[in-house]
Amino acid sequence: MARVVRVMDVPNERSSHTRPVPKSGGLAIVLAFTAGSLAIYFVADIARIDDQYFWGFLLCAILIAVVAFVDDLAQCSFVVKILTQMACTVMVLGTELAVNRLWIPVFGEVPLGWTGYVLTFLWMVGLTNAYNFMDGLDGLAGGVAVIAGAFLCGIAFSQESLFVYLTAYALIASVAGFLIFNFSPAKIFMGDVGSAFLGFTFATLAVIGAHFDRGHLSFYVVPMLLFQFVFDTFFTFVRRLLRGEKIHLAHRTHLYQLLNRTGFSHREVALFHYAVALAQGIGAYVVVSLEPRQRILVFIPFLLFNSLYAWWTMRRARAAGLV
Q1: DSSP H/E element including 243
Q2: In terms of pTM, does the model score above 0.85?
Q3: 90 in a domain, yes or no?
Q4: Is residue 6 a part of any domain in this protein?
Q5: Which of 18, 30, 106, 276 has the most neighbouring CB atoms within 10 Å?
Q6: Helix, strand, coil % (nearest 5) of the chain?
Q7: Spatial CA neighbour of 266 closest among 82, 140, 79
Q8: Residues of the domain holding 224
C-alpha cells in the first residue's frame, strides 16, 4: 500500500539510507495490537482492568498513532506533534490513570498526590518522544520492543499482573511480525506512527502495571527495560541544550546515530542494542526480586555502562569530525 500511494521515506542529508523505502509500516503494528487488545477486552476474564482505564489507554494510543500517521504523510510541525502527545496524556490522566505512590530511597513509599500526575505526564510524553527519536536505523526500535516486551510479558506473568502480561504478548506479536520486514536491510520503516505508538504504549503499561492491574509490578520495570533509550535521549537533549542548538530541529547526533556514522553498520548497531536490551531485561528481573528500597540501586551499573558508552562514542565522533 505504501508503494502504491507513495508513502515513501526519500533520503536526504539526515538519512541513514540511500534509496526510497516505504514508511508508516507501524500502521500494521497498531492494527494488530488493537485487534489483540480488543480480544483481551471481550474475551478475558481475570486479565482485565476497569473500563475507564482500558478505553482511556487504547483510544489515546490510537489517537497518538493517527496524528503520527498524518505526520508521516504531511510532515507536521514539532509543535503539532508535541501538543497532540500532551493532549492524549492529559486525557489518560483524566481517567485517573497516574502514578499515585513511588518507593524512594531514604523516604520509603511516598504518596505522590497531585505530583503523581506531573510525574506521569512527564514520563509518558518523555518516553513517547524518546522511542520516536530512537527509531533511526533498520530494526533497532522494533527489535528492542520485542525484547523489552518479552521480558515485560514474563515478569508480569510471574507477578500475576495479567492484563499487562496479555497486552505485552499482543505487543510482541504485533512488532515481531513487522520486524521480519524491518530488520537490516529494511524493506519498510515503521515511521512515527509506529515509534510514537510504541513509546506511549510502554509508558502507559508501566503505570497500569504499577497500580491498576490484578498484580502490582514495580514502576521501575519499564524504565529499566528501556533504560538505554531513555539515557541516549536525555544525554543528547542535554548536550544539544548546552551547546545552544535548537532542540526541536531534526538532527543525526544521537549516540546510536553517531555509532553508525563512525563505521558500524545498521545491523551491528541494532545487535548491540539488542544485547543491551537483554541485559536490561535481566536487570528488570532483579528489580522485582529485591526489596522495594533496594530496587533503584539496580540502575547504577547500567548508568555507569551507558556513561562509558557515551564517552567512547563521542570520542569516536570527535575523531571523525562529526561533532
Answers
A1: none
A2: yes
A3: yes
A4: no
A5: 30
A6: 70, 5, 30
A7: 140
A8: 20-319
